[in-house]
Give the backbone structure.
Amino acid sequence: KAGVTQTPRYLIKTRGQQVTLSCSPISGHRSVSWYQQTPGQGLQFLFEYFSETQRNKGNFPGRFSGRQFSNSRSEMNVSTLELGDSALYLCASSLRAAGLDTQYFGPGTRLTVL
Amino acid sequence: GQNIDQPTEMTATEGAIVQINCTYQTSGFNGLFWYQQHAGEAPTFLSYNVLDGLEEKGRFSSFLSRSKGYSYLLLKELQMKDSASYLCPPERGGSQGNLIFGKGTKLSVKP
């Protein structure tokens, strides 16, 4: 069974631009969670989608948004990029809602904002 | 609120045994995960403890004490490839099921 895939793997943007990241969960998994990882803050939870609905949201500004499609693939969008948004963005999928199952992580998208 | 406390860094020698401690405070506790993350890579699942006691899985064992809010990961016969960060997110379940990760423990294994 294929693992979680994320595209693109690397991205360079400039301040003020917007970016869309994609995550394809393990086949059959219905939950996708997004995390931001920076050296100073560690892994921080952004949001979780389950069956196309946002179940849970972390403490990030409204510039960070996401959605999930009927095939469970998920996208996250960051608008008006800031230098501090440079990070590794990870998505994780689980069979059932997060909190009921082990989460499996994708390889991440490394975003650099110049 | 939720809080996770782990040592920031540890160093050990190849072939040795190392114990990485984790204390946590959280509401709605279900169980606790351990993940391993190599530099620049995604976290990979190591173990999940829901009951008190020790769970052994090859060279890795994980212990949980629910009453003390305490867990540890025990790594035996250390190998160079065990150099990584180790994360211990508690699982809260229900509507707050997302994992909250601390900054992890960076383990360096030296020859």
User: Anything to note?
Assistant: Chain A is about 0% helix and 55% strand. Chain A touches chain B through 26 residues (CB under 8 Å).
